[in-house]
Each structure stands twice: as structure tokens, then as C-alpha cells.
Amino acid sequence: MNPANELYDFSGKVILITGAAGAIGSEAARQFAMLGANVALTDINEEKVKAVAAKIQQETGSECIGIKADATNEADLKSLVEQVVAKFGKISGLVNNVGWGKATPLWGSDTEAMVASYKLNTISAYNVTKYCMPYLRKEPNASVVFSGSMVGVTPSPEFIEYSTAKAGLINMAHSMAVASGPEVRFNVVVIGSVDNGDATLEAGYDPAMLKKISDAIVMKRRGTPADIAHAFVFLMSNAASWITGINLMMDGGGMYESKMPS
Q1: Which of 204, 213, 120, 207 is nearest to 162 (CA)?
Q2: What domain range includes position 180?
Q3: Residue at 256 is within a domain
Q4: Less CB within 10 Å around the terminal CB: N or C of the chain?
Q5: What is d(CA 210, CA 148) in angstroms, rounded to the nearest whole number?
Q6: Rounded to whole angstroms, how far apart are CA atoms 201 and 80?
Q7: Looking at the domain assignment, is residue 255 inside a domain?
Q8: Residue 215: which CATH number?
Q9: Tens place of pLDDT per residue across the chain (262 aa)
Q10: Does 237 fall in a domain?
């Protein structure tokens, strides 16, 4: 095998991906499977996640399973990990991808909504990681990757619930990294504006807003699910074996507006 290819060989690995029925999670599952990994996909949408897993297995030949789990239910997550280990005997890597948030003005939230966002976007990742750790510690180059968001690292009063939860997620990932090296690596992909189809519109954007965003991005386009999946693969690969505790910015160079008069 070409030495460069060996860096991205996931043969014999078992990768668990949460939120895997969505655009980014399913594309990540497909890419890991293409590189030889067996993949466990989980989502609250049982029918869709099982269908996605079956399709990826057919396309790649890697073994893929779809498991229903409510990311906000700790018992579900404990059972999820037990099912993956019962099926494959191990867990080599975890992609904490589940998460969602809608536009909420700064003073338009309340305790219940803030806590609900924190449970979905932050606590869910803590719980599934906790249950995976005994198995990850046994694996060479074990790695956990988190789906962060630009709203978690920049002032985002329009998304106060989601941005606060994602900020907590990033700090939590860094804490896990310093406590777990060198056994397990932890990194965050800080995601900018990605074309997630209907999910983007459901979050409160409209086509005019999305065009304005695209025009302002340095690379003059919004990201694709494949762009984000490539980052997950890199951070979990042998090519990144000395990388832990970082935020990898995946935002097309960010949004830039000239300060000079037009």
C-alpha cells in the first residue's frame, strides 16, 4: 500500500457517528466506510438512519448498522454504545455530530429552551463520549471529533440558545483533550455556513440571506457536507495522530467585507 494511503486506511476500525441520518453525518459515514471502516450510525429517526446505513453498506462493502437513539436520553446512549460493542467488539472513534439550533433573539429565550439546547448540543456529546471511553482507551490512535459551530466562537445574539451550547461544547472538548492525552485525542471542527438543504431553512434562514452569506465568504460559496466529512476523516486519521485539543475552522476563509469605500 502507498504510505500516503496508509495514513487514511480505516480497515478494522469501528466508527460511531451520531446525528447520522442528516446530511453531514450520513456523508461522514459514507466516507469512513469507503476507507474501510465499519460504521455505526445513530439518529432519533430510526427509519431513515437504517436506510442510510443499508445504502452505504451496499455502496462500499463495509459493514454499517443504523441504531435509533434519542441523544437527549442518557439511557438510550448507554444502550447505543452497548449495542455497537456487542456487534463489532470495539469502538475506535466517535463523531459527536448531533446538534441543531434555530434563530432565537438574545432576549427571546427562557430557562426551558436554554436547557433543552444544552441537553441536545452539549450534554448528549458528554454522555455518549463517557460511555465510549472504556473502549476508546483500548484502541490505537483513538479519536473523538465534535461538530462545533462558528456561532460558538463568535458573538451570535441571533442564536443565543444554540451559540451558548456550542461554546460549552468546545470548552468541554478541550477539557477532555487535556485529561485524556495520549490515550484518546479530542478535536472540534468549527463549522461555518453549510448547505444542509431543508435543515438550513428550518433554522431560520431564507434564500436572500443565504446568497448574502455566500457572497461574503472568502471562497465565495457555502460549504458542503463532504467538506465537513473530509475534516472529520483527517482528524481521526493517522495523519493527525499528533493533533489534539484544536478547533479546525471549516468556514471557507470566513466572511469578509472591505472596510474601504466602494
Answers
A1: 120
A2: 3-250
A3: no
A4: C
A5: 20
A6: 30
A7: no
A8: 3.40.50.720
A9: 677 789 999 999 999 999 999 999 999 999 999 999 999 999 999 999 999 999 999 999 999 999 999 999 999 999 999 999 999 999 999 999 999 999 899 999 999 999 999 999 999 999 999 999 999 999 999 999 999 999 999 999 999 999 999 999 999 999 999 999 999 999 999 999 998 776 666 666 678 888 888 989 999 999 999 999 999 999 999 999 999 999 999 999 998 877 887 6
A10: yes
